[in-house]
Amino acid sequence: MTFVIGEACIKCKLTDCVEVCPVDCFYEGPNMLVIHPDECIDCALCEPECPVDAIYSEDELPEDQEDFLDLNAELAEVWPNITEAKDAPPDEAEWREVPNKRELLER
Fold first, then answer.
1. Integer angstrom CA distances of residue 29 from 1, 43, 60, 76, 79
2. What is the pLDDT of residue 1?
């Protein structure tokens, strides 16, 4: 089992979740984070840390977010690992409540 970062992270990319991860399984892209499914130990420490509720347990992933399981696995193989929190993007507050951000994902 793994945790998955979903659509809500796009354009927000808050890193509160990164510092609590005991196995450093987060990877950073241009405008979102992903979790490497082979590295995640299902500890659940990251889920409550996400201010935008973008992190889901694999078995609780909403149906409309299921493709993010494969997306997290794919992008974790090419994006760099992130182990420390960073400042939030300057416009993240504008994106917190915006739905349907898939097309804004930058690879």
1. 23, 23, 24, 9, 6
2. 86
d(CA 23, CA 83): 9
Q: DSSP state, 81? A: B
Q: Say what the pTM is.
A: 0.97
- pLDDT, tens digit (0-9, with 9 covering 90-100), for 27-74: 999 999 999 999 999 999 999 999 999 999 999 999 999 999 999 999
pLDDT of amino acid 86: 97
Look-up of token digits 């500890």: 43
Contact yes or no for 81/43 (Cβ under 8 A):
no
Q: Which of 82, 64, 71 is nearest to 2 (CA)?
A: 71
Q: What does the block give as tokens for 29? A: 């892209």
Query: Across 1-107, where does the E strand assignment appear?
Result: 3-5, 26-28, 33-35, 55-57
**Domains with residue ranges and CATH for the chain:** 3-88 (3.30.70.20)
Residues 6+ apart with CB under 8 A from 23: 39, 40, 41, 43
